[in-house]
Each structure stands twice: as C-alpha cells, then as structure tokens.
Automatic annotation (TrEMBL):
Keywords recorded for this protein, A-Z: Cobalt, Hydrolase, Metal-binding, Signal, Zinc
PANTHER family listed in its UniProt record: ACETYLORNITHINE DEACETYLASE, ARGE_DAPE-RELATED DEACYLASE
SUPFAM superfamilies documented for this protein: Bacterial exopeptidase dimerisation domain, Zn-dependent exopeptidases
Cofactor: Zn(2+)
Taxonomic lineage: Bacteria, Pseudomonadati, Pseudomonadota, Gammaproteobacteria, Lysobacterales
Species of origin: Thermomonas fusca
Domain Peptidase M20 dimerisation: 216-333
Protein name: M20 family peptidase
Signal peptide: 1-23
Coiled coil ranges: none
Length: 436
C-alpha cells in the first residue's frame, strides 16, 4: 500500500491553509489536498442545487432529477452511469455509476441516497447558508454525503489517482422508505456488494465531544405485528372459565414479557402502535388503527406493531425465537400470532470492518487529523450499507457532519465536506492500489 509521509500538519493541512514545515506528502496525495480546497465552491454550489430540488421519497420525478444532476457530475470523470427504474416497486429508481480501472486493486463501492424525508408539501424546501453552516431539507441526510462522493472523485480525477481505480457508486432513491417488495428494491445494491471488496457509506459523520467518529457496525431492523384474540362478552365474566382474559390482557401480557425478558446490550424492541377492542384493526399502511368498545365488553381483538433492532444476525434470530416463545404462553381462552417483516439486516462489527477503520486512521495520521474511534452502534439507525455487509468490508458514516436530520432546520457543517472528501479521496486511492 502506498504510504504518505505527511508529519503532524494537523487540521490546517487538511483544510489546505498551507503545508507545515518539514511535511513531505506523496505528490499525488498533495495534489488531492490542493484540488479539494480549490473545488470547495463547486461542492457547495452542487449541494445548493441538490437541496433546492425536492426529492422526497414519494416525489418520483424529483428523485430522478437529483439523479440526473449527479449523473452530470460523474460522466465527465469516466463513469458509465445507469438509471435503474424502480417504479414497479412504487419508487423512482437508483443511480448506479461504474468506473473501470486496471483490475489490480480492491473493488470499491460507494453508497449514498438521493431521496429525503421531506415531501413537496413540507414547508422546509430551500438551501440557506450562514457562514460555514447551511440548512436545507436532506442537506446532511444524504445530499451532503452525495456531494462528498462527487468532491472526492473529482479530486482523484484531477490528481490522476482515479484512472486505475475500480469503483461503483450506488445512490438509492428510496433509502428513507424502501419500495416493495424489499428484495426487488435492494437487488441492485446487493449485487454491487457482491461485486465489491470494500464499501464506504456516506450517511452523516458522527461528531461527539469535538471529535469525528467512525461507524463500523449498525444494528439491523425487523418490523413485527402482534395480533391477540379472545372471546368477547359481558365484562362480568372476565377472568372466568367461560370468557377467560380477552385480547387486551393477552396483548399486555406479551408486551410486558418482551419488556422483562428481552433487553440485552445492543438489542431493543419498540412498540409503536397498539389498538384493542371489539372490533380492532390497523389500516393497510400499518401507521394508523381503529378500535371500538365499551367498559363492560371484553375485548375480542388487539393488535400492536413495532420494530426489533439487533447488532448481529445471531442476536436477531435468538430474539425472534424468544419472542415467539413468550407469545405461545397464552392466557386462558386467548390466542396470539407474531409475524415479522425484514427491513434492514444487521451490519455486524467484523474484523474486516475494523481493519478498514485502521486504514482510515492511517490516512488520518498521515494527514495530521485525529484518530477516529468507533461509534456505539446502539446510537445509530439503520442504513443501506447493511445490505452489503454480508459480502464486503464496510465503513459507514463517511458523510457530512451536521444536526437535526429528518427535522425542519436540518444543518450541515460545510467545512466537514472538505475534510471528509480529503479523507475519502486518499483512502479510496490507497484501496485502489491494494491487491484484493
């Protein structure tokens, strides 16, 4: 692997204020620094254009328009860009861009997404800048990450380090709300993961205590629906041999069993919505429900939905089995069923992921940036990187630093774009020269 010999220049070198006395960076990596600094106005202008184009997940033309903007950035760099139409899944599509190198280095997958949680009816629609901070819908999640990918690749192209690199960029158009069926919605990303040796994911950078942190693990997510049933009748007979306990007590028993018996490190189980009565039902979207009943009627049906988050496939499988065991211990005259729906697989903290972080920290050391510690996976949500974690080593959270993701007033630290683009450009260039 190519080693640069930059001594402790600190963050000033990373921001190209000027090389420190005695620093002797490898020429190509020195060119990366200069190129990224010079290109920062382009990066910020691109970010503004991307943010001002609404691309809420359900705004299919808007998501496609953002994809077209990114296509215009990548094709001049030598990428073969393809739009994968996904309207059959209820979503716009994905952008897949491939750069063919010399085949001698690691194959590198870069992951981000084009969509945001802000639909066209949201009042939060425009980019606004105040010094080194900017606000806008999706500015950090994930348009800042997309801009970092583009900025790193533009710098590599200018420095000559992109020429021999085998890189695939996959920007999904439905990360915030995946299309259905999920297998079809993520088929292209999974295929890219099987092609790759390593994957870098450009969701937001975690900054805590003034220090950047790296993400080498994410918990997976599985949604679940619990339905309890019972005999209905006059409440004077509840607890008795004829009516038993009713659906609401059965639902409460099960959920309390989950609360008492399941908690362990990195495992959480949330109950998001519950309804019970005679009758009771959820709407088809699972986000609303209705129930009827009276104080003197034993509930006939109760339904609850929620999610299960686990760090490893083994932890998730064990939790599912324990949940089913709790469900099976029915109260008299009641029944219950528990159904799971896969959402995001776990991204476990593997040795390969940690080795990739070690390579990034060598880059940090060579650039005079602080070493990055692992971030607690229980403090992060799920992301598309989990779909490739079974096939490639993954380093996540390579995007922009900011705050208030998914909320009006979402912000990004513009200086972090330059810092992250530099880290990425150097890391990708070194990986591209490392035999697979």
């Amino acid at each position: 692997m190519l080693r640069s010999r930059v001594l402790a220049c600190g963050l000033l070198l990373a921001l190209s204020v000027g090389p420190c006395a005695g620093a002797t960076p490898v020429a190509a990596e020195q060119r990366l620094q200069a190129s990224i600094e010079a290109d920062q106005p382009h990066a910020i202008a691109l970010l503004e254009r991307l943010v001002n184009q609404n691309s809420g997940t359900l705004n299919l033309p808007g998501v496609k328009a953002v994809g077209d903007m990114v296509r215009a950035e990548l094709e001049p760099l030598g990428f073969d860009v393809e739009w994968i139409d996904m309207r059959a899944t209820g979503r716009a599509g994905h952008l897949v861009a491939t750069h063919t190198g010399n085949g001698r280095g690691k194959r590198i997958l870069l992951i981000g997404h084009l969509d945001t949680v802000f639909e066209p009816d949201s009042p939060f629609q425009r980019f606004a800048r105040n010094g080194d901070t900017a606000t806008g819908p999706g500015i950090g999640d994930d348009k800042g990450g997309v801009v970092i990918i583009v900025a790193a690749l533009r710098a590599m192209h200018a420095a000559g380090t992109l020429r021999d690199a085998d890189i695939k960029v996959v920007l999904t158009g439905d990360e915030e709300s995946a299309g259905t069926p999920l297998e079809a919605a993520r088929a292209d990303l999974v295929a890219a993961g099987k092609w790759a040796d390593v994957a870098l994911e450009y969701e937001g950078l975690i900054v805590d205590g003034g220090r950047d942190h790296a993400t080498i693990a994410r918990r997976g997510v599985a949604d679940w629906e619990l339905t309890a049933t019972g005999l209905t009748g006059h409440s004077s007979g509840v607890f008795g041999d004829a009516l038993g306990y009713g659906a609401n007590y059965e639902l409460a028993r099960i959920l309390d069993g989950f609360r008492r018996e399941l908690p362990e490190p990195n495992l959480t189980l949330n109950v998001g919505l519950m309804v019970g009565g005679t009758p009771a039902a959820l709407d088809p979207d699972g986000a609303r429900g209705s129930a009827a009943g009276k104080t003197n009627i034993v509930a006939e049906r109760a339904v609850a939905v929620g999610d299960l988050r686990a760090l490893t496939p083994e932890q998730e499988a064990n939790a599912r089995a324990r949940m089913q065991g709790i469900v099976a211990q029915h109260l008299p005259k009641t029944g219950a069923t528990l159904v799971f729906a896969d959402a995001y697989p776990p991204m476990a903290p593997t040795a390969g992921n940690r080795a990739l972080l070690a390579l990034l920290n060598q880059v940090n050391t060579d650039l005079g940036l602080p070493v990055m510690d692992e971030w607690d996976p229980a403090k992060r949500g799920a992301a598309d990187s989990s779909f490739v974690a079974a096939d490639a080593d993954v380093l996540a959270g390579m995007g922009a630093a900011g705050s208030r993701a998914h909320a009006e007033g979402e912000t990004v630290d513009l200086a972090s774009i330059q810092r992250q683009a530099l880290r990425s450009a150097v890391l990708i260039g070194r990986l591209a020269r490392t035999p697979p």
